[in-house]
Amino acid sequence: TEFMLIDNIPVEITGEKNILAVIRKIGIDLPTFCYYSELSVYGACRMCVVEDKWGDIHAACSTPPKAGMEIRTNTPRLRKYRKMILELFLANHCRDCTTCEKNGKCKLQELAQRFGIKQVRFNNTSGEPNLDTSSLCIVRDKSKCILCGDCVRMCDEVQKVGAIDFAYRGSKMRVSPAFDEPIANTNCVGCGQCAAVCPTGAIVVRDDTAKLWQDISDKDAKVVVQIAPAVRVGIGKEFGLAEGENVMGRIVAALKRMGVDEVFDTSTGADLTVLEEAGEFLAKLQKGEKLPLFTSCCPAWVQFAENNYPELMANISTCRSPMQMFASVLKEHYRHSNRRTVVVAVMPCTAKKFEGARDEFMENGVRNVDYVITTQELVKMIREAGIVFSEVEPESVDMPFGAVSGAGVIFGVTGGVTEAVIRRLADDKSVSALRALAFTGVRGLHGVKEASIEYAGREVRIAIVSGLKNADNLIRQIKSGEKHYDFIEVMACPGGCIAGAGQPVTNEEGRKRRSAGLYDADRMSSIKRSEENPVIMALYSGLLKGKVHKLLHVEYRR
Ligand code: HC1
Ligand code: SF4
Description:
The protein has 558 residues and is an alpha/beta fold. The chain is built from 20 helices and 20 strands. A hairpin with a 6-residue loop joins strand 8 and strand 9. The structure holds 2 iron/2 sulfur/5 carbonyl/2 water inorganic cluster and iron/sulfur cluster (SF4). The site of iron/sulfur cluster has 14 residues, from helix 4 and helix 5.
């Protein structure tokens, strides 16, 4: 075994790529702006500096550990250095902190406080807020960017989109889309992952809460809310509950207290998706039509395919996403209501804001989903309403759509859609067969998974990817003939919707807990398969009669 000394403590080196990881292992929270273990090392912010025994200074993120190394993390020189860096950042940063979207969650604010910055010795050169509000999903404010490049690397390395990059040099350097275009005019797919890693308020999720407050207070509006699967396990921690705890009942109750009329579960929509998508897959399989079939519930993925692989659109399921299926059902159901029906979706996702606004999902100029509120926005509304979330008594969702299956709930984690569809396809409906599905390779948070099942005497090959770069790689392998699949699930956010950019930001451990929260909900659900959901059966024999294609399917045109 190899050791190094950190602040005189011997620490074992166990394959860490840099000394930052070794330092954090012993409970020292070395500050960084530009380091994420899942992104490449950029080494620009210099906050993670350490001193060696000769007094030389190194950035811990870009220095590999060596046996016998002696490192100090907290010397007077390092403290002075860090303060200086922070002051330089602050000098070039619009400091309207009290009205900033990121107030209270900003890394710069946090570190300035932690290092006791009371004044900044340099003139402020940032200017006024400088907003790009062109995207329906995210808002950029150039005046708050500290050039850490986290967004640039996320967009390029994890999402393979590359919508933003560094432009200009020296003191003019900034992060920007090519040719300084508004972000909406680029190939941005609205996944919001750049906002999820931005340490300041330079990229944030678009805030649509004002619309909801307004509709709630409008007596002529009937406000109907649907809640996505992943939201229930992503929100509790914000209110002091355990990360990953399923708080669906509290969310329903909080929304009711805020004044919304009806609350439903998007998992009901997911059950519809399972039946439709399984049907579509079987039809293709039996007719020998072109496979693979790609899932279509992730709007960032759909847009990515439209931008980069238009020829694949014929392979993407025609199923609307659960959110859109449920919304068209809801609008149909309340068609004759004497009030204007406003369908709001609470989603873990920023791209859903874009999906809801697509032309394909409008009827007579009216959107099926009137607007989307992310989990983060819901948190703000609950706080604004003064609701003490941890003390709210849970309530159930409303009738007549008040039933969901466990299959519909696990949609929120990578592999969930696939498992739900396989449950539908499996001939063997026994409990043990259902349990065995969990071990076919569909579960877990890996970015690329493979599984295979037997169906009607043949092998069905399945791939499950999250993170668009993983999707891109897979598509290349398919095109080159290296890989063959029949069914492919794609989610843009690494880990699936539980790690959506609309959720409160979390880490790997948090993603595991959220995922476990959804599988727990499935285990506790007495309805495991979508086809066993009585609401779905009633819909097919009622409201959906003769309208399945119109309400549940879509042809993307762009
Ligand atoms: Fe998702 Fe979906 S699972 S896309 O991740 O298919 O957003 O949670 O609502 O529509 O159901 C998101 C989550 C969500 C849809 C469903
Ligand atoms: Fe890139 Fe996603 Fe951010 Fe758009 S929203 S700039 S695609 S990371």
